[in-house]
Design brief:
Helix content of chain C: 10-25%
Radius of gyration of chain B: 25 Å
Distance between the termini of chain B: 42 Å
Low-confidence stretches of chain B: 1-9, 483-488
Structural class of chain C: alpha+beta
Shape of chain C: globular
Mean pLDDT of chain C: 95
CATH architecture of one domain in chain C: 2-Layer Sandwich
Mean pLDDT of chain B: 91
Number of strands of chain C: 6
Shape of chain B: globular
Radius of gyration of chain C: 17 Å
Oligomer: heterotrimer
Structural class of chain B: alpha/beta
């Protein structure tokens, strides 16, 4: 209530001013933050812009009495781990808040364990508790398909789904739900839960990052942590990305972050072992090729045929 | 003053204790380099020295006279660890904008005081020194009580939080009224006022400070009729109600007897006057704690020593002493009513009573940080010349943890006492509702009251009756650290 | 008769928008809000039934309003109140408490007297409604 920005579309001399509405809302800032924070993901950014445009126009339409009913805003974000789904959800919450479609603009991120109980009568209060915390903002359910376990007849997930559906339908102005997970599993989840599928208005697919995008992400992360790569390390990291990407359990940006964390560890170990020698600020910042190449990913290549 | 002049420095012991008279500063009561310990009690005095007496010596004299010194040197000092027992004046600042006045900071060792005794504390700090000739005037402005000392007191028997839980009243100031006329009503007629006011919407009614047991109404009669009224009002509203039964009497035995009857009749609160003395107040506090009773204190007589800026004891110090002594309610000013009260000074008193921890706040007259060591909070009472039309100002200045007492503003309502009470309660609830909704009550106040009066005729009548009543006089007791003192 | 417990009982019954605004005020201060109901409104009845647990960490009043609605629907002829609890050191108690539902007819309370020694009396307040068993009152 009190916190929602009173955003009144302005009517200029030539009529309604979409540019002014865009300028005066915080949408631009949220979109810019999205561009800045996330490398690549062009199709995702395009979809977010489309949704923002739809909501802006809808707001303007309503201001002149053109009613299309409250827009359905529930979304599904599909893609592999580490492709930026949570980050985009955070920005999406900001955009919805800026345009007055979400009163508080906060994001509550949960998984099955937060919603589904262990025994009979446990699930409804748990789910409702989460829903109440998310009211006025965005509820982000990661790996949403785990809610549905048809193989177990007595699974309580179905109860959570039913409560969710009810709120998604009846309290659209109070809550936006984003379901997230692997593309194929989400597909199967929607296929077996048509009620859920029909309430999702926007599907955004998050593609895997290309090798050059992953490398750009690594550079962004390193700059944020005040490290740099030596020339040798640059080549090593590019090679690393190519190898790691082909291996199982690859999680895009998340795998890159893990790799960098391990490289930092090796750098520290290397410096510590030579602790008698003089040390420069430059050396403290620099990751060398050996810090990257000591990774098991390279070792795996030499034992390629091992299981 | 001193006949024995020494050129700077502290004399050796033999010199120091030679019979005769010497300057207090030289006796060790002035120490510019002294750093107060956490366990020291610090008093801040406003001193106005006589012509020709320098401020450091005057401060040292106050330190001396309020601790170990006497007018002459005594050899028996040397049988004690006197260095420890001497109060130490360590800082003197000129009062801004008041020539000839100084703030003197004096530190007292914890060992000087008996635990848990306001009588002992006050006998030390203000016992002797206020008549001291080398000073034209002396005022105790503030006091820092070390938490070690605070913990030797039990503090308020009930406190704001538990009082609210017992009354089941939250989120708004409480409402009260003093039964009027002050004198002459019979017990039966007196109870009528209590019943009407409580049924109409007040939470409390109150005996006046001088209602004890006079020929027109003996105390037992008053208690019996008042409790009939309280119980009838509880049944009529479903709310917990109270009336401050004043148990002030000539002896402790009489006070205990009266308090016991109040308890037997089921009263949730009893009342005492400040004039019964600090020890009697502490005794009644113990009694109240033993008997689940809210203890209301009327500050009768305080203005004789709190009002004038140059001489006496500031009410903020009285507030601190009463929080230690352990009362649950204390009259602490209204800002807007008929009695003395600069807004900043009054807010300073309220903060002393209500906060867990006071920060230094010179603008509100708080010179020291004060940790209350978990002592419960005292509910301030605002009483004297206030009415429903000021509700937005009262809420703005005083906040919600306060008892607002509308005596004339209830009983003087043209449609009767119950109507007066209803007007006050509706005005109060409407104002709290609006404030919580985020409205600017300071500016929109009158409009909020007008809107509330649309569904409440008694409020409309009250607003019409008292719309032009204000008491707009300059205050005498204002803080020294504001560019211009605000008129209340 | 109208029971005047709670912070806003002297005002006309609050609308949902007004209730929501008060809840927003409480949540904005980080207070936990809860819903309670009873059919025994004695002034000393400290323990109304809890309609669920106090709600912690809520950002928006919508969640509380859903509970208020559900409680009013389940107990249309009971007293229902909204409480706000402040866990701040030195408070650790309610900071606001107001009635959001009341029975259509409120018969009120009787005052029982028992004469004691001298002119003293012992008083007892009793809700007429509680002459009937729990759950069958105010119908």
């Amino acid at each position: 209530m009190g916190e929602t920005r009173a955003l009144q579309p302005q009517a200029g001399p030539e009529g309604l001013d979409l540019q002014a509405l865009y300028r005066d809302s915080n949408v631009a800032a949220a979109l810019e933050a999205l561009d800045r924070e996330l490398v690549g993901l062009a199709p995702v950014k395009t979809r977010v812009r489309e949704i923002a445009a739809l909501l802006l126009v809808e707001k303007l339409r309503r201001s002149v009495g053109l009613e299309a009913g409250p827009p359905s805003l529930h979304m599904s974000f599909t893609g592999n781990p580490g492709t930026g789904k949570t980050t985009v959800a955070l920005r999406m919450a900001e955009i919805l808040h800026a345009l007055g479609y979400s009163r508080k603009g906060h994001l509550v991120a949960v998984t099955r364990d937060d919603l589904v109980g262990q025994y009979i009568g446990h699930t409804a209060p748990k789910t409702k508790e989460v829903l109440k915390r998310a009211m006025g903002g965005v509820l982000f359910i990661d790996e949403a398909y785990y809610l549905y376990r048809p193989e177990n007849e007595r699974d309580y997930g179905q109860e959570a789904i039913e409560i969710l559906l009810q709120v998604m339908e009846n309290q659209r102005e109070d809550l936006v739900v984003i379901l997230a997970g692997y593309r194929d599993r989400m597909g199967r989840f929607f296929a077996s839960n048509p009620g859920m599928a029909s309430r999702i208005a926007h599907h955004i697919d998050f593609p895997d990052y290309s090798e050059s995008e992953l490398y750009a992400i690594a550079e962004l992360m390193l700059a944020g942590m005040q490290y740099r790569l030596s020339a040798g390390a640059q080549a090593a990291l590019r090679e690393y990305i190519g190898l790691r990407r082909a291996q199982p359990h690859f999680a895009n940006a998340r795998s890159i972050r893990n790799a960098l964390d391990r490289a930092r560890l090796r750098q520290a170990k290397r410096l510590f072992e030579r602790r008698g020698a003089p040390l420069t600020r430059e050396a403290l910042m620099t990751i060398e090729a050996e810090d990257v190449r000591a990774s098991r990913v390279f070792a795996a290549r030499t034992e390629e045929n091992q299981p | 003053m001193g006949k024995l002049e020494q050129a700077g420095g502290r004399p050796e012991a033999r010199e120091r204790y030679r019979a005769g008279v010497m300057k207090y500063a030289q006796m060790g009561y002035w120490d510019a380099g002294y750093v107060p310990k956490d366990t020291d009690l610090i008093a801040l005095f406003r001193i106005t020295p006589q012509e020709g007496v320098d401020p450091e010596e005057a401060a040292a004299a106050v330190a001396g006279e309020s601790s170990t010194a006497t007018w002459t040197v005594v050899w028996t000092d040397r049988l004690t660890a006197c260095e420890r027992y001497r109060a130490k004046a360590y800082r003197v600042d000129p009062v801004p904008g008041a020539a000839g006045q100084y703030f003197a900071y004096i530190a007292y060792d914890l060992a000087l005081f008996e635990p848990g005794s306001i009588a002992n504390l006050t006998a030390s700090i203000i016992g002797n020194v206020f008549g001291f000739k080398p000073l034209k005037a002396l005022r105790l402005e503030d006091m820092r009580l070390p938490v070690a000392y605070v913990k030797t007191f039990d503090g308020p028997p009930t406190g704001i939080v538990v009082e609210r839980e017992r009354l089941d009243k939250f989120g708004r100031p409480l409402l009260g009224a003093t039964v009027k006329p002050k004198l002459g009503l019979s017990g039966k007629n007196y109870g009528r006022v209590v019943y009407e006011a409580l049924k109409g919407g007040l939470d409390f009614t109150k005996d006046d400070e001088n209602i004890n047991s006079q020929p027109f109404m003996h105390w037992r009669d008053r208690f019996l009729y008042c409790m009939e009224a309280v119980n009838r009002a509880q049944a009529a509203t479903g709310e917990v109600k109270g009336t401050y039964l004043n148990v002030t009497a000539g002896t402790m035995e009489d006070m205990y007897e009266r308090a016991e009857l109040a308890k037997e009749l089921g009263s949730c609160v009893v009342m005492i006057d400040l004039v019964i003395g600090y020890t009697a107040i502490q005794s009644m506090s113990k009694w109240a704690r033993r008997n689940d009773m809210i203890l209301h204190l009327h500050r009768a007589g305080h203005s004789t020593y709190t009002r004038q800026k140059t001489h006496g004891v500031s009410f903020r110090v009285i507030s601190k002493w009463m929080r230690l002594a352990g009362v649950d309610h204390i009259h602490a000013g209204t800002v807007v009513g008929k009695l003395e009260g600069d807004p900043n000074s009054v807010q300073g008193f309220y903060n002393v009573l209500r906060e867990d921890h006071n920060a230094v706040d010179l603008q509100r007259g708080l010179f020291f940080e004060q940790d209350w060591g978990g002592l419960r909070k005292v509910m301030p009472v605002a009483s004297g010349g206030i009415h429903a039309g000021q509700m937005h100002q009262l809420l703005h200045y005083l906040g919600e943890d306060v008892v607002l007492q509308f005596g004339g503003g209830t009983i003087g309502h043209p449609m009767g006492i119950a109507a007066g009470a209803t007007a006050n309660r509706v005005a109060l609830e409407a104002m709290v509702l609006a404030r919580n909704e985020g409205r600017d009550i300071w500016n929109e106040g009158p409009r909020i009251l007008e809107q509330a009066a649309r569904h409440c005729t008694p409020l409309k009548q009250a607003l019409d009756t008292w719309k032009d009543v204000t008491f707009d006089y300059a205050s005498t007791d204002t803080p020294d650290f504001v560019p211009t003192a605000t008129a209340a | 008769m109208r029971i005047t417990q709670g912070t806003f009982s002297f005002l006309p019954d609050l609308t949902d928008a007004q209730i929501r605004a008060q809840i927003e005020y409480c949540l904005g201060r980080g207070w936990a809000v809860s819903v309670e109901y009873t059919d025994d409104p004695h002034p000393r009845n400290a323990y109304w039934e809890m309609y669920g647990m106090p709600m912690f960490d809520l950002k928006d009043a919508a969640g509380v309003m859903a509970e208020v609605d559900a409680c009013r629907k389940t107990f249309p002829d009971h007293y229902v109140k909204v409480n706000a609890f402040d866990a701040t050191l030195g408070w650790e108690s309610l900071r606001l408490s107001f009635i959001v539902n009341r029975p259509k007819k409120e018969p009120g309370f009787g005052l029982l007297r028992e004469e004691g020694a001298g002119r003293t009396q012992r008083y007892s307040v009793r809700a007429y409604a509680t002459e009937r068993p729990e759950g069958e009152r105010y119908t």
